[in-house]
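In practice, a research group might receive sequence data for several interacting partners and want a quick structural hypothesis before committing to experiments. The following worked case mirrors that situation: the sequences arrive first, and a predicted assembly follows.
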Amino acid sequence: MGKKLLIHNDKVPNIHTLQVYREHGGYASVEKALKSMTPNDVVEEVKKSGLRGRGGAGFPTGMKWSFLAKPEGVERYLVCNADESEPGTFKDRYLMEKIPHALIEGMITSSYALGAKTSYIYIRGEYFYVARILEKAIEEAYAAGLLGKNILGTDFSHDCYVQVGGGAYICGEETALLESLEGKRGNPRIKPPFPAIAGLYGCPTVVNNVETIAAVCPIVMMGGDEYAKIGVGRSTGTKLISASGHINKPGVYEIELGLPVEEFIYSDEYCGGIINGRKLKAVIAGGSSVPILPAELILKNDKGEPRLMTYESLSEGGFATGTMLGSGGFMVYDETTSIVKNLYTLARFYHHESCGQCSPCREGTGWMEKILHRIVEGHGKPSDIDLLWDIQRKIEGNTICPLGDAAAWPVASAIRHFRAEFEEYINNPSKIKDVKHYYSVNQLAGA
Amino acid sequence: MEIKFNEEALATVNKIIARYPQGKHKSALLPILHIAQAEFGGWLSPETMDYVASILNIKPIEVYEVASFYSMFNLKPVGKCLLEVCRTSSCWTRGAEDVVKHIEKRLNIKEGETTKDGMFTLKTVECLGSCGTAPMLQCGASYHENLTMEKVDALIEEYRAANKQRSYTDLDYKNTL
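A structural hypothesis for the assembly, expressed as tokens:
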């Protein structure tokens, strides 16, 4: 069993309350950081830990923190990105719902490191009830002197607020999130300037994912060097993986980075294998935006070596044969799945979520959805596959924010690895008509 | 319906506005729109949006452009219970299409429509972060997960009997994670 640092106490009764959380060692990192470390010490430990952004991009957190501008007399902000909206991803929801104080503790410790007097947790609007849980936790923290003026009798004062969004995937992009937090439409900003220089209200701002901020607490407690010993190479520490799809045990798992993919899928400790003993067909390993890989390429890379759950191993082979760890939204598809129909649900998603600011994304996502719709309805044309390929090529890299790339990659990878299935749809529409491409609900309930 | 917050709602609104630095009160727009939608019939009429603009001392267009951007704000009336069924990949693989068809048949409406008695509106939505407990639907603040047709039927009966408007801001929520 691997080491757990974030959700090891998730089954403890009432761990969502401050009292039980503290009984299990909660808020020790606030105590340690504020009383025995300088802000810079904390930043140094995070740098040493090798922690990388857990929202999907995997950018080194310590480096991101060190970019934060610190002009005299200007407010700095920490903003937590809890806009978890990437299909397949529900790890942050789990963490916030089960152990809300783990995030609040991380917010205080991280804010101390960054010199932020105010922080905001921007949470997706659909998670309204989770926002209630966080607000309750914040209230408890204020009452215990862990938030507010002179925390634990030190000079450090801090306020933390929860902000609910309005239901927009794009607000997971950090500059769109900041726009939304300012009460505007979630249109991503042109960068530079980066938020570290001009973020919320034009002030230097760090935006970090929920899991990233929560990971700061164990790093402060065990030290960056110790944390970096967990994992493989530049993939240090533990990672929350949210597993879903055709597996026996969907859910959120904390793994040590470096776990073999095969073990994650088939071990009873994790996903518990494929439903009904069926064969694995494909996996989207890091949220819907990352390339889908067929079974043979997700279990082993193109050199035949076992694929590991690390940033590097999953991306080995580039996009030709690899993918990305992304957000850890691990979606598993068995042999009955129609890759084309599944791709259609994703193309529809990206079309719905495109903010409309850049033409390639606004128009391209719509065209891809329409073309895929006609293919799954049995009206596809032989030229449609190349047309889809052409459109996604023209979106990728040509937009202000990465949503364009995120919309292009699923299409590209599905065609790259499952072209024959597209051809089948187009050449034999009568064969695919009326075929059910998913499990019926009652079939699963009986399983 | 008079478009004016009651004292309790107004107190919450003022508390929200106080979260932001001086002059940055526009940040309160999304949270206040959620409250307004819950207070004034489950949707944002032009009158409601104008009222929110007046509270924040911003131009009505600043409210319209935001309300029309985010999918949680209804710009047309909806039923007391807005049933939002997730249909993206993981939910799809576990039978979301069945759930939609079942509700359509049961309530005799199509996706996007409202029942004649104004009780239910059916909407399909994109990923709600409930992939491990798929299929699911959201109604107000509650997540209903690991759905079966029996659960859907029971839920519809329960909501019909309670006969009350469900909002994202409701304090009584159900979740099964």
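Before designing any experiment, note the following. The longest helix of chain B spans residues 149-162. Chain B touches chain A through 56 residues (CB under 8 Å).
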